[in-house]
Give the backbone structure.
Amino acid sequence: MSTDALSLPDDPAALKALLLREREAFDTERERFHREQEQHTEVLARYEETVQSQQQTIRRQEQELTRLLRRLYGPKQERIDPDQLTLFDAEELEQLAEELAADEADENQQPTTSRRRRRGHGRRPLPRHVPREQVLYELDEAERRCPCCGETRQEIGRETSEQLDYVPASFKVIEHVRVKYACRHCAEHVAIAAKPPQPIEKGLPGPGLLAQTVLAKYGDHTPLYRQEDIATRHGIVLRRSTLCDWIAAAADLARPLYERMCARVRASRIIHTDDTSVKLLDGLSGHARTARFWAYIGDARNPCTVYDFTDSRKRDGPLEFLEGFGGYLQADAYGGYDGLYQDPQRNILEVACWTHCRRYWWEARSTDSPRAHEALGYIGRLYQIEEVVRDRAAHEVSAARQEYALPILSDFQSWLDDQQGRVLPKSPIAQALTYTLNQWAALNRYCEDGELSIDNNVSERTVKIPALGRKNWLFVASHAGGRRAAILFSLVASCKANAVEPWAYLRDVFTRLPSLPNDGLDELLPHQWLAAHPQHRWQIDDLRRKERARKRR
């Protein structure tokens, strides 16, 4: 309300009343303005909260998309800039390397800093046992004439070179002829020579063909319909239904040996375990559901690798398989193992995997690079110690970890505690921090024993065997089929773990198992079988190990 000076009343009382009304109107307007301002502030705050939430969602989705794209198309190795490790003093690592390498001084007195020149691998000599066919190349009579005097040139030597060729694998038919005998005098009492027990009684395949069928599917990941095609190229028609029956018979035959291998694994002090998924067809509905192959790897005294099959990822699988086991169990942070660790009657100690832990920090690099790289630096120092003590005796490894790794772990824990409360909840760096602190006791446990490993990579490599097969044969048709696959996977994986040539091993197993008593099963454990058959050591495995060792240097 606006009022000019001439219209104001002369009466003081009326003027006061007018001023009061003006003030009340002003106060009312001011209160309305404040209410509207508060409402606008609240609306603006809600908008800002919504925008921040959406931005966080977008960042998480971008991170997840980046992670998935890197998993599909990017490099598999999680490499970091080596300069990141220079954030820390490596004096103790140099001291460790000097102490452990003191007894391995170079025989040629070469400086330890000089790098050995890498030589080309060249061509390896071909084995002498491979059949050879000689092709002789000679000059004809006219070419032997000497261009100078015309006399016939005489042979003075030969130049030989080798070429490796391929002859397709062949089938052969074994005729089992059993001679019958009878008494000519009385024409009675007919006797016939006994036939040794066969892998499949009255079945078509011999031990070698059965071994090849099993190895092709569970070692070379060749589905049965492809094996059907391969056999047809040789003029032999073997339908996949027949091959499937052979696979089932081979698994049933090997079940006692598999159970013996499982018992040896459970007798270990240290077991590594991991799992991978596989599609299981539901016989009633015809739909597929997710089942699991679980890998269990024994220690150096029980070097067997076995698989278990379950139709789900419930904790019942590990609880049942590990019945009677007591010792160290190295696995990922799957909650299904918690019942094993918490049961005082089982006496199972959890050993966590630093590779799993490192992966969380690796994923957080894009959102909080300084913290992520600092944590990766700590973890990198722990792995540097493991690289130095690789292939050392267990007591030396344990002593090195106690002296050098524990101080690094102590510093890392102090840094982790200091970072709590400084990171955004639900951010990748917070997830890495939470995972590390929750698993801290289990992550430190590898320092207790020199036979323990800093990570569970051996299990991750082991579950790749059924994972590769899954890409080819896609699914298992029944629970019984999954159990049989676990048995045959166990035989093949144990061969690979012990550098045993798998075909020769499987052929001997299928030859001897039909007549072998249960108290002789230990003879067929892959590591013991190799000791009795050293000629069947898997040479390619030795070459690959040497190549990996050379790359590490």
